[in-house]
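B., you asked whether I could sanity-check this one before it goes into the benchmark set. Here's the sequence:
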Amino acid sequence: MKTIFLLFLTVYIAYFLFRPVTKKEIDKFNDPDNWSNMGF
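And here's what the prediction gave me:
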């Protein structure tokens, strides 16, 4: 049971790290007004 949980957790983290980046995320990252990205 623990190995299945760890396997799913590893797959989820790998997907989150290596997923294709959307155009909206790229535009938000390249926006010169990056204060909005900090969550203030």
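One thing to flag: The chain has a mean pLDDT of 80. Otherwise nothing jumped out at me.
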